[in-house]
Design brief:
heterodimer; A: Cytochrome C Oxidase, Chain A; 15 helices; globular; B: mainly alpha; 7 helices; 0% strand; elongated; binds protoporphyrin IX containing FE; binds copper (II) ion
Chain lengths: 541, 200
């Protein structure tokens, strides 16, 4: 690490630029960096709650029969775990936290296009989140439908589904507004010389993500409103007894929720594309293909929703078509993986914390992707449908993929915004614990699913005991790693060593400004003269 | 990176167009359900459609198209620096919007009085598709009515700004965007009207 510039010469950073202090300087700030940090703190809080619930679920599964909770509690807890993780952590997390923190600086803008709308989005997110939390303690108690809110159960259950669903609707609205803000920002506010071909790949991924947010979320919105209408008014739209069709609900739900997995994973892929060139000290291999594949994933990925419904009763032709399209999405994803690996080839690789997380991303995401193909093929899907295999698969993609990329981003970028950095050794140890713990937790689930253990059950047959115990044991290692990582990060960011402008030697714009940046992001308006991975040219300041 | 005025304007326009897309998609879900159930229950949909009172729908269509025109005229007026005229046009737009809702209120009341509403005893005993038709009808027009209501609030806000002079010939993007929103509300109605009142 280099400590090039003298801290005494720094201008006031965005942390202490305003006369105002206290909480209102934050929750009413329109600075994208402050809003990004607000998102970060809020999504991490929900993440920690959801992790705790996940650990409780795993403790229940340590032995057959009832261990610490009965079936009713288990149903409520896995629903709450899923809802928090999906709607309050990973979907808003990446765009909200790192999209906000990094994207405007990377394109050389002083803020997003609509700063007040940005603040409003965060408030909506918070209001939606509070509504969801509220639904857990009021009405008929926490919803127990699973995060998918499938009818007819979600209409029949006496739990507080309406309020929870309404909360998710509000959060979705926030997501739409963020998407609109980001697309406009990237179109209108690029610095002089920041041509489309010079956009950092993280920006490309945020751009693709924003389009998915805009195009898919409204469909979720209307679907959720329909559940509320069905419960309150008895519209019967999804009730076969009244002529409705529950399969239509599933279509509408997955038309959003499949593309939503790209909201979760695309920004993660963007982070990886930033980290590999910097830590291999080589320009990214196949810049255009990576940028293009983000768009291709967003586009093709929007056509594959019905692969969640192979066992729901669709025509064979539909199954064939959706199965085929699902395999098509694997192509742009594989393009990315090959390009990343090619970037590493013959690079001078430095294995620091962000890079370790990024490297493990590749492995975990590949396992997630390959198990995904097994479900994309109709024949094998029928075997593994609704088993622990699915739970293993999506944790590999969302947690091993998006989650690890999120951690990577935290180590890579947060020092920029705090001006101080974490300790490297504990960071590496935490990564090791996370990686090992992760695999011990989730790989057994894949095996359990293949052997036939269903998902969303608090109990199982004795023959599944050993693998379940292993998995529970793994979850404790995982939790230890998480705790160590978060403690190390918070200690370092608050009290650690100061860092200079460019600790990693990156060539993107955020490294040209001071750490932490001034409110307007740059001391002088940047003019871009080279690409984001041009380490040899005028690149590295 | 300086946010030049022109750039700001273009940004605001891009933003509102993106937002309008999301509105279309929101209603798109309901239109999708309409299509699916129409193909499943063509006869029931037709017989339910005959229960609609064309006069109400027709009147509302006229009112809404007129209001859309008035909104556009208020924008032109602001551009020509005719503040008073702009305010009158905006007022007339809002008036039309209120007429629309009042009309809708009478329409819904009369339908509810005849026993057509979700979960009503009359529909519960009738053929299945008819109940679905009315559920969709109430949901779609209800959501649309909500948009009309939001439009009224928005246009009122804009009128205040016009009267204070914060919206003027040099800066009218908020008015323009509100008018665009209003055109969309109009446009969605232009789809609802034939689907529920005419084609069946
Ligand atoms: C320490 C971390 C975690 C643990 C121990 C954990 C554990 C679990 C367990 C035991 C289940 C229920 C399996 C079943 O009985 O069907 C589950 C479900 C789920 N998890 Fe996690 N998980 C963790 C992290 C995450 C993360 C990071 C995400 C996403 C960002 C996530 C998303 C989900 C979802 C969507 C479900 C499905 C809930 C449902 O079926 O409705 N989990 N998790
Ligand atoms: Cu999917």
């Amino acid at each position: 690490m280099q400590h090039c510039d003298d801290l005494a010469h720094q201008k006031l950073s965005f942390w202490n630029d305003t006369g105002k202090t206290g909480i209102s300087a934050w929750v009413f700030s329109t600075d994208h960096k402050r809003i990004g940090l607000l998102y970060l703190y809020s999504v991490l809080s929900f993440f920690l709650v959801a992790v705790t619930i996940g650990l409780l679920l795993k403790i229940e599964l340590i032995a057959p029969g009832r261990t610490i909770m009965g079936p009713v509690t288990y149903n409520a807890l896995f629903t709450v775990h899923g809802v928090l993780m999906i709607f309050l952590f990973i979907i808003p997390g990446f765009p909200g936290a790192f999209g906000n923190l990094v994207m405007p600086i990377q394109i050389g803008a002083s803020d997003v296009a609509f700063p007040r709308l940005n603040l409003f989005s965060w408030w909506l997110y918070l209001i939606g989140a509070v509504t969801i939390i509220f639904s857990l303690f009021t009405g008929g108690g926490p919803p127990d439908t699973g995060w998918t809110f499938y009818v007819p159960f979600s209409v029949k259950t006496g739990t507080n589904v309406s309020l929870a669903v309404f909360g998710v609707f509000i959060v979705g609205f926030s997501s739409i507004l963020t998407g609109i803000n980001f697309v406009t920002t990237i179109h209108r506010l690029r610095a002089d010389g920041m041509q489309w071909g010079r956009l950092p790949l993280f920006v490309w991924s945020v751009y693709a993500t924003a389009w998915v947010q805009i195009l898919a979320t409204p469909v979720l919105g209307i679907t959720l409103l329909l559940i509320v209408a069905e419960r309150l008014l008895g519209t019967g739209l999804f009730d076969p007894a009244r002529g409705g069709d529950p399969i239509l609900y599933q279509h509408l739900f997955w038309i959003y929720s499949h593309p939503a997995v790209y909201i979760m994973i695309l920004p993660g892929m963007g982070v990886i594309s930033e980290i590999f060139p910097v830590f291999a000290r080589k320009p990214i291999f196949g810049y255009k293909m990576i940028a293009f594949s983000s768009l291709a994933i967003a586009g093709a990925g929007s056509l594959v929703w019905a692969h969640h419904m192979f066992t729901s009763g669709m025509s064979d032709t539909a199954i064939l078509v959706f199965s085929f399209l699902t395999f098509v999405v694997a192509i742009p994803s594989a393009i990315k993986v090959f390009n990343w690996v090619a970037t590493l080839y013959k690079g001078s690789i430095s294995l620091e914390a962000p890079m370790l997380f990024a490297l493990s991303f590749i492995l975990l995401f590949s396992i997630g992707g390959l198990t995904g193909l097994l479900q994309g093929a109709a024949a094998t899907n029928i075997h593994v449908h609704d088993t622990q295999f699915v739970v293993g698969h999506f944790h590999y993609v969302i947690f091993g993929g998006a989650g690890f990329a999120f951690f990577s981003a935290m180590h890579y970028w947060l020092p920029k915004f705090y001006g101080r950095t974490y300790a490297e050794k504990p960071a590496v140890v935490a990564w090791g614990l996370l990686f090992v713990g992760f695999n011990i937790t989730y790989f057994p689930m894949i095996l359990l699913g293949l052997k036939g253990m269903p998902r969303r059950y608090y109990d199982y047959l004795p023959e599944f005991t050993h693998l379940n115990q292993l998995s529970t044991f793994g979850s404790w290692i995982l939790a230890t790693g998480l705790a160590l990582m978060l403690v190390n990060l918070s200690r370092g960011l608050l009290k650690g060593e100061p860092i200079g402008r460019n600790p990693w030697g990156g060539a993107t714009l955020e490294w040209t400004t001071q750490s932490p940046p001034v409110t307007e992001n740059f001391e002088q308006e940047p003019v871009v003269t080279h690409g984001p991975y041009d380490f040899n040219g005028a690149g590295v300041p | 990176m300086i946010q030049r005025d022109e750039n700001r304007y273009a940004g605001a326009k891009l933003g509102i167009w993106l937002f309008l897309f999301t509105e279309i998609l929101l209603f798109g879900g309901l239109f999708l359900l309409y299509a699916a159930y129409l193909s499943q229950y063509p006869h029931e949909f037709a017989s339910a459609g005959h229960e609609m009172q064309l006069a109400f729908g027709f009147a509302n269509t006229l009112v809404l198209i007129t209001s859309s025109m008035l909104a556009a005229m208020s924008l032109t007026a602001v551009q020509l620096r005719e503040q008073r005229k702009a305010l009158i046009m905006l007022g007339a737009t809002i008036f039309c919007a209120i007429i629309f809702l009042v009309n809708k209120y009478f329409e819904w009341s009369s339908e509810i009085n005849s026993g057509f509403y979700p979960n009503s005893p009359r529909l519960a005993t009738g053929p299945m598709g008819e109940a679905l038709y009315f559920s969709l009808y109430y949901l779609t027009t209800g959501l649309h009515g909500l948009h009309v209501l939001i439009g009224i609030v928005l246009l009122t806000l804009v009128s205040v700004k016009v009267s204070h002079g914060t919206i003027h010939a040099g800066n009218y993007v908020l008015l323009e965007n509100s008018a665009l929103y209003w055109h969309l509300v109009d446009l969605i109605w232009i789809f609802i009207f034939p689907l529920y009142y005419l084609v069946l």
